[in-house]
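Margin note from the TA: students keep mixing up input and output lines. Inputs are the sequences; the output is the structure of the whole complex. Example:
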Amino acid sequence: MTTRNDAEKRDADDPLAPLRDLFDLPEGTIYLDGNSLGALPRATAARVQEVVTGEWGDALIESWNSAGWIALPHRVGDKIARLVGAGAGELVVADSTSVNVYKVLKAALGLAEPGRDVIVSERTNFPTDLYIAQSVAREHGCELVLLEPGEQPADRLDERVAVLMLTHVNYRTGAMWDMAGITAQAHERGVLTVWDLCHSAGAVPVDLTGAGADFAIGCGYKFLNGGPGAPAYVWASPRHADRFAQPLSGWMGHAAPFAFTTDYEPAPGIARYVSGTPGVIATAALECGVDTLLAAEPYGGLAALRRKSLELTRLFADLVEERVPGFAIESPRDDERRGSQVCLSRPEGGYAIVQALIARGVVGDFRVGSDGLPDILRFGVTPLYTRFVDVWDAVEQLRQVMESAEWRDERFDQRLAVT
Amino acid sequence: MTTRNDAEKRDADDPLAPLRDLFDLPEGTIYLDGNSLGALPRATAARVQEVVTGEWGDALIESWNSAGWIALPHRVGDKIARLVGAGAGELVVADSTSVNVYKVLKAALGLAEPGRDVIVSERTNFPTDLYIAQSVAREHGCELVLLEPGEQPADRLDERVAVLMLTHVNYRTGAMWDMAGITAQAHERGVLTVWDLCHSAGAVPVDLTGAGADFAIGCGYKFLNGGPGAPAYVWASPRHADRFAQPLSGWMGHAAPFAFTTDYEPAPGIARYVSGTPGVIATAALECGVDTLLAAEPYGGLAALRRKSLELTRLFADLVEERVPGFAIESPRDDERRGSQVCLSRPEGGYAIVQALIARGVVGDFRVGSDGLPDILRFGVTPLYTRFVDVWDAVEQLRQVMESAEWRDERFDQRLAVT
């Protein structure tokens, strides 16, 4: 059994430990919710201040040129591309994940072989992906088929399927799909793939190019540490660049926005996926977040972060099994199939247990079950700043919460607007 | 003829003059481009810092509840509603203008009488509105009919027309449509109206309720002073609330986002127009901008700002006519038809003249002509911070630029990425 001393020793020996100093973390909190909202990078506050007071306040409209605002979605996009196995010029920062799901589903349907009118996704996908897919399916007269838990995508990919849309790492369980294998199966069957990277980019090595994927989208506020509601991003394979349509054909995706012509002409490649005027302050904050991941490159980059992440989640699951009875571990134990989080379930009390942990300074989150799925207690690890001792202490706090039964106190069952 | 002393005296007598102190304006610049990017409010930098370091950095995920992030699109939306004659709960902050144009055009087409398959707009509308309308028209098998300059909307509103989409104040000329009159004409003919308020909200009194309008959208970064690429907003008449569809059906527009159900169920009313996770930092900055306009309420609010704006633009046009020969004034001289800007044209040199003025510290902007329209030199006035003496000095600088012919210097003809 791992002791707290063992955990401290692993931190002392951890070559990635210095990366934690890139963050402003609150004292006394063990933050295991970076899979929902990444922590604040130390560089962000000053950079945002520079954008607000210097670039906006002093230089005003001139900053679209002098401060490079106009190129910001592309500059930050190129940085994110390095984290997900994409090339420069293939990925842009734009809009929200939801809006980008809409864009890529429409693009994929436009490229699909004639007669294919089914979109396949999975019932446990993050709801916004499903809600948008429902809308697109309705608009295009398509059927939306949802994989049930345990089903493999290949079983549903017949000659009617146009697009397979999966989230690489599941938000509920942390289960990870084999992107390369499934993409190959899809392509063998003439199906295009859309990958949602919200819960993988920045925590798990992603290789869109190597996997031969078609489209990808992801958010900026989880493992990319871009801040609350940070802009999202969108990628299209260079195979499809210049070929796909953009329904949200805003002026910033025009081939010549400042020609102010009456007719839309899409910019070459991925640039057409920039729609309206980019949010400069938010994109600048996102860049600081992405930079925290690029700062790990001299330390072995995402491969090294991934090794540490797996060690952290394995330790978490092992300690819960050893020390805190009564929980099922809903995340895969197999390293190949586990993202960067550990999810627990229990027949009752999940919400209140999470609240009791938060009161003790251990921040995970709760995801309600629906459609017969269990309620989930989620604990995300962010290898840039999560320590082995944090995992040890978190499980110890969970043990104390259960042993004391303090979670049964009614103050922990007061539902908040955001749970 | 107005002298500089006269202008100084008008500033000294101006009851709105103290409002200028709400802004951090750079020394030595006469900023006449608030119709493109509003100036930095004095409160914004500290508020953004509080959101970044306090709400995000210290409180982390908890701030969705404790700092009210989840309600931010509605709270700021309610404030914008007060500027455009809308009620509380009718308007939300979300996405970009381009994305919101898409939403409302789709919603309007969904509500239109069966068989109507024409969208009417105007050739000189801001291009992004036209680009999105082209996309929507293509998707719905509709025809997009564009009014030529000088045409009246009523002439084109026949029984085939579903939607009339106009920008209240034209971005090129500052010409303002009669929102109430045109909306009434449209409704008589069974046509729904979409109003783009980008160049009017915050500078011109807008009364969506009084006009009986159907849908409206607008941007946050012009007269609302929300910062570069600030989030946009969207309004639907309460007549249509609960009835219209939202193609970008993201989870934050769901009736119960944190129930994580598989099927989309739209939130009541305008809340369904929030799509993805809202950009917290940017929306907080926008709130500071909107607050600068609400701060004018004790001074007479938008009615008082409008009076000053008209005096400023009238003075600008008068001084150009009196003192700087060779320019045509493209903005309406009639107060009823003029927004908050003065646009000039000239057979040659427009771009270089604007650059020469910028080099002298007078910031307006240039809009290239297309489709046979002339190039435009634009000068926006923001009654919150533009002074009469600024107008006088700007015209004097223009006089000197023309008299010296310095604009012919080749350094002023180096085209920038953003012009």
